[in-house]
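Q: My labmate handed me this sequence with no annotations at all. I'd like to see what the chain might look like in three dimensions before we decide whether it's worth expressing. Could you predict it?
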Amino acid sequence: MADMTRGERTVQLFAKVISNPEKKFTVSDLMTSFEIPEGERRNVQRDMRFLSEMDGGRYIAVETVGRTAYYTSALRNAERLLFPNFENTMLHFVFLKRIANIYPATSEIIAQLLERIEKSLPHREQKSLQLLGKNLNTKILFMGAPPNFEEESSEKIRVILQAIHEHRKIDVTYKTEMGDKQSIRIPLMIIIYEDDLYVGCQRPDGNTYTLKFRRIKNVKLSKETFVENPKVLDKLRRQVVSGAAFMGSQEPKLEDIEIEFNSRTSLYLEENPFNRSMRIGKPKNGKVMVKLKAEINNLLFNWIVSFTDAACVKKPVSLRNRLRNYANFLMENYGE
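A: Here is what I predict for the chain of 336 residues:
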């Protein structure tokens, strides 16, 4: 099985356990089922711990025998349950419904899964869920935006996801510096980056690019279809992981990067890693060393500069030189 993002993997694990209420699963069972490599075992253990702790274990139960944990569905008798804090429980359902619009690879399975769970709930609680969903649906993905923008955005996401699922091209009117541009695009996936949504697309020559979702003025399904190329999808995934999808090359050349940060940035770095390869060392003398693999491009450069005097690049030399040239530019224009 191709590499899954954490979101995709977590939802697939959740669906596997919930969909088989009479079975018990170990981490090894689940890894075998989805052909997850052994090197990902700790990640799967973390995912299952998160799922079993979600809302006090109301969805997935865990039983430990010796050193082995067995996971089972806690929703087998959902129709008989009375939830003491029902509204908080339902927040998880509403949230899962909304992330179904974010992960195209799992949108259909989340929808089927939640429909099954919802039908098993008592009628009174079904109505509460519907009311809560109606109140929150437009606020989870687009918190703070005007209502009319949120409603249009939900419809645009639906069209794009349908196109991805059915391998159909989309007819897009896109806002550019030179004015609105209408063209036919090949959508591959939806990408979330720093609270913004992007649509990863493919050119006829196999190269990839991204559209910023908020700049899409109109989108509709085209009658034209396309053949999905797994190699192009894998390339786009690599670009996303390396940070090259927005400001990098088609085949990013990853380099080993070391940056010394002021230790006061540690929590922010943990909460907002540049990419998944980033590793944060232990604070020492008010400093913390960060190591990662990434392409040296504008995205990385802008990220480092945003920390101003709290970051100092140690390697590679090429990145240090680029920052030195920028410092010279600042001195020429703003120095006394």
